[in-house]
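A.,

Following up on our hallway conversation. C-alpha cells first:
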C-alpha cells in the first residue's frame, strides 16, 4: 500500500483528467455506481468513455440513446412485422434491455426529456425494465452504467435531476485534453465481496462530510461508500482505508456541495492558567505523530480540495450549487397540444378535428387480434377501438412583466435600472423565445408602457421618454401586472411578474389619498396575484428595506429581493436566478 502521506497529498491535489479516468474505472468495478455526468471535454470525454468501455470488458454491449426515441424503442414492446406475419403477438426488447451488462451513452443529456429520463432512472433503481402495452407485459433485465454527455452552454442547462442524482460522478472536463499516452490499466479482480465491511470511523467520516457540505440527497453517502469500496478493490486492498474514503469524498461528495462547512470552534483557554510555553520542533513532531488528524477532517479536506476556487467563493457567499437540471431562463412551461410540438406518445381516439392518426400504432394495436377476428394474410382488420392518435407537447413562450414604481423623487433612477434590466432580458429573447413587458405606476393610475414584445428597438423607443413623480398607486400597479399576466397565460404563454417598488402605498385603488386604504388595497391586490398562481418576484428598491415590502411579497407568494442599490445587471441577475428557481 502506498505511503499514507504521499497518497494524501496526491488526493488533495486533484487532476481533472486523472479524476475522470479514475471515476470511469470505479464504475467498471461497480456498475451499481450508476455512471458519470461528463460536461464538456471533447477528446478527453471520448477517452473517458473508452476507458469505461475497456473496463467493462470485451463483449459488453454499448448502446447510444437516439435523440428522439419513443417508448416503443426505449422500453420494448410489440414487434409489428413479426406479429402481422405470424398472426400472434411477438415482442421485442428496447434499448434499455439491450444495454444490460454494458453501457448506455446519453448524448445531449441537458436536453433529455423527463419522460425519457424517468424510465432510465427506474431501470437504474430496479435493474429491470417493464413494458406494458397492447395487452402484454414484457420484463427484461437492465443493469447498465450510464454516461450522460452534458453539452449545456448556460450554467443552468443540466441533465434532468431524476437521472443525474442516480449517477455517482459529476465531472466538468472543460478544456482538458487527454495525454498522448494513457496510464496502464490496473490489474483488478473486481471482487467486491472480498472487501471487509466498512469500519465505524469510515461511516462516520462519510456522514459528517455529507452533512458539512449541505448535501441533502440520501444517495450521495451511499454512492460515496460504494466508491470507497470500489477504490479498495481497484488498488488490491481487502479493507476500505483512509485513501479510499478520501477519493470517494473528492469524486462523489465534492461536486454535490451546496455550502461551505462552518469553521471549527476553538476551545477557550482556562483563565487561571498561564499560557504554555511555545513547543520546540521536536515537541511539535512528537505531538503530530501521537495525535493524528481525525478521519472526518481529512475526508472533508479532500472533498473541499476538489472544488474550483470560484465555486468555493460562490458557496461561501451563500449561493450554493444547484442540482443539475434541464431548461433555463426564458423557457416557458410545457403544454399539451393536439397537432403541434414534440411527439410524446399516442392515445386511443378518432382522428377528427385536426387530430392526427398514428398508422403504425393503430396497426400495432390491431395486430394481436387478427387470428381472433379471422383475418387472412392479404388484409388487416382494424376496428374503431384500435385507432390511435398522436399526442404532442410544446413549450409555452415566457413573458416577463415588469411593474415599476415611477413615483417620488428617485423615480428616474428606478426607471433607469428597469430600462437596463429590460434591455438585458430582451437581448436574450431572440434565442430564448421570451417576451418582455413594462407597466409603470405613478400618480393615481398604472400605465402599460411596453406591451409584450421581443423587439429591442421598440422597447428602447417606448422607454426613452418615460416621466416620473407623484404618488404611489401600488394596488393599481399590482392589478395591472396581474391582468397582463393572466392575458398572456390565456394566449398560451408562461407569465412571470417582477415588481419593483419600496412597498409603501399612499394612493388607494379609487384614487383617494388615504394611506390605510391604499395599504389595504395593495395587500388585496397582492393576494390576488398569489391566488392566480402566477410566479413572481418582489424587488424592494428602497434605500432601507422595511416590513411593508416583505409583507406585500408574502401576500403575492413571491420571492422577496431587497436590492436597495441594484443596478441593471444586478437586477437582471437576481430576476434570472428567481426564474431559474421557479422552473
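Then the amino acids I'd put at each of the 583 positions:
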Amino acid at each position: 500500500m502506498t505511503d499514507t502521506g504521499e497518497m494524501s497529498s496526491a488526493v488533495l491535489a486533484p487532476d481533472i483528467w486523472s479524476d475522470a479516468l479514475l471515476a470511469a474505472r470505479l464504475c467498471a468495478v461497480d456498475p451499481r455506481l450508476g455512471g458519470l455526468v461528463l460536461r464538456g471535454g471533447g477528446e478527453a470525454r471520448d477517452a473517458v468513455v473508452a476507458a469505461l468501455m475497456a473496463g467493462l470488458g470485451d463483449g459488453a454491449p454499448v448502446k447510444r440513446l437516439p435523440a428522439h426515441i419513443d417508448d416503443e424503442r426505449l422500453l420494448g414492446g410489440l414487434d409489428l412485422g413479426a406479429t402481422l406475419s405470424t398472426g400472434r403477438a411477438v415482442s421485442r426488447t428496447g434499448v434499455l434491455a439491450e444495454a444490460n451488462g454494458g453501457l448506455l451513452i446519453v448524448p445531449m443529456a441537458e436536453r433529455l426529456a423527463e419522460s425519457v429520463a424517468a424510465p432510465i432512472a427506474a431501470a437504474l433503481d430496479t435493474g429491470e425494465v417493464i413494458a406494458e402495452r397492447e395487452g402484454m407485459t414484457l420484463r427484461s433485465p437492465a443493469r447498465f452504467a450510464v454516461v450522460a454527455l452534458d453539452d449545456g452552454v448556460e450554467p443552468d442547462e443540466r441533465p434532468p435531476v431524476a437521472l443525474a442524482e442516480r449517477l455517482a460522478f459529476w465531472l466538468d472536463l472543460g478544456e482538458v485534453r487527454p495525454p498522448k499516452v494513457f496510464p496502464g490499466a490496473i490489474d483488478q479482480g473486481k471482487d467486491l465481496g472480498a472487501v471487509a465491511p466498512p469500519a465505524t470511523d469510515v461511516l462516520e467520516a462519510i456522514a459528517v462530510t455529507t452533512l458539512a457540505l449541505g448535501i441533502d440527497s440520501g444517495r450521495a453517502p451511499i454512492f460515496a461508500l460504494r466508491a470507497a469500496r470500489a477504490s479498495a478493490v481497484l488498488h488490491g486492498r481487502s479493507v476500505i482505508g483512509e485513501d479510499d474514503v478520501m477519493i470517494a469524498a473528492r469524486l462523489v461528495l465534492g461536486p454535490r456541495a451546496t455550502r461551505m462547512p462552518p469553521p471549527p470552534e476553538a476551545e477557550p483557554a482556562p483563565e487561571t492558567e498561564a499560557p504554555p510555553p511555545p513547543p520546540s520542533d521536536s515537541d511539535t513532531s512528537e505531538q503530530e505523530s501521537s495525535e493524528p488528524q481525525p478521519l472526518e477532517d481529512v475526508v472533508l479536506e479532500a472533498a473541499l480540495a476538489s472544488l474550483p476556487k470560484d465555486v468555493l467563493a460562490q458557496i461561501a457567499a451563500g449561493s450554493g450549487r444547484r442540482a443539475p437540471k434541464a431548461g433555463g431562463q426564458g423557457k416557458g412551461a410545457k403544454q399539451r397540444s393536439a397537432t403541434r410540438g414534440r411527439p410524446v406518445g399516442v392515445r386511443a381516439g378518432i382522428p377528427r378535428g385536426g387530430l392526427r392518426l398514428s398508422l403504425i400504432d393503430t396497426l400495432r394495436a390491431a395486430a394481436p387480434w387478427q387470428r381472433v377476428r379471422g383475418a387472412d394474410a392479404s388484409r388487416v382488420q382494424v376496428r374503431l377501438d384500435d385507432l390511435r392518435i398522436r399526442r404532442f407537447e410544446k413549450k409555452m413562450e415566457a413573458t416577463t412583466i415588469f411593474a415599476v414604481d415611477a413615483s417620488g423623487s428617485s423615480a428616474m433612477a428606478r426607471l433607469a435600472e428597469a430600462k437596463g434590466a429590460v434591455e438585458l432580458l430582451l437581448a436574450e429573447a431572440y434565442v430564448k423565445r421570451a417576451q418582455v413587458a413594462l407597466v409603470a405606476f405613478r400618480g393615481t393610475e398604472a400605465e402599460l408602457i411596453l406591451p409584450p414584445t421581443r423587439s429591442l428597438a421598440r422597447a428602447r423607443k417606448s422607454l426613452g421618454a418615460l416621466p416620473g413623480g407623484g404618488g404611489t398607486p401600488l394596488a393599481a400597479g399590482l392589478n395591472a401586472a396581474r391582468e397582463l399576466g393572466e392575458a398572456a397565460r390565456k394566449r398560451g404563454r408562461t407569465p412571470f411578474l417582477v415588481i419593483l417598488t419600496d412597498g409603501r402605498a399612499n394612493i388607494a385603488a379609487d384614487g383617494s389619498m388615504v394611506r390605510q386604504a391604499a395599504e389595504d388595497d395593495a395587500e388585496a391586490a397582492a393576494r390576488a396575484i398569489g391566488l392566480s398562481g402566477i410566479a413572481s418576484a418582489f424587488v424592494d428598491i428602497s434605500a432601507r428595506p422595511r416590513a411593508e415590502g416583505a409583507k406585500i411579497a408574502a401576500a403575492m407568494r413571491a420571492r422577496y429581493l431587497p436590492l436597495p442599490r441594484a443596478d441593471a445587471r444586478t437586477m437582471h441577475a437576481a430576476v434570472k436566478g428567481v426564474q431559474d428557481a421557479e422552473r
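The chain has 22 helices and 17 strands. Curious whether your intuition agrees with the design.

B.
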